[in-house]
Amino acid sequence: MMHGSPDRSRLWIRVFAAPVLLAAATITGLLAALLWGTVGQYVAWVTVGAPVLVIVWVWVRRRTTKPSHLAG
């Protein structure tokens, strides 16, 4: 019987932890907007905007750092 190694488990967490957290925050924000009234709208702005901010942050970071494999 094959079982996953601890290294594979850690790799899974490294790959999927951020997307799962962003998805959970987005869902929480959407529900907050529906259920919590005015306060929920502010929570929704922050949580639904978080994935956009992450994308912009990664895009800017990739544009400003030079690839190490091209250095020579």
| Low-pLDDT residue spans | none
Assign a percent range to the helix content: over 70%
User: What is the H/E order?
Assistant: HH
Biggest pleated-sheet summary? none
Distance between the termini: 47 Å
The helix count comes to 2
Helix/strand-derived class?
mainly alpha
Q: What's the total count of β strands? A: 0
In percent terms, what proportion of residues is strand? Answer: under 5%
Please, could you describe this protein's structure?
With 72 residues, this protein is mostly helical. The termini are far apart. The chain has helices at residues 6-35, 37-64.
Tag the structure with descriptive keywords.
72 residues; mainly alpha; flat
Could you give a quick summary of the protein structure above?
The chain is mainly α. The protein contains 2 helices and no strands.
List the helices and strands and how they pair.
Layout: H1 6-35, H2 37-64
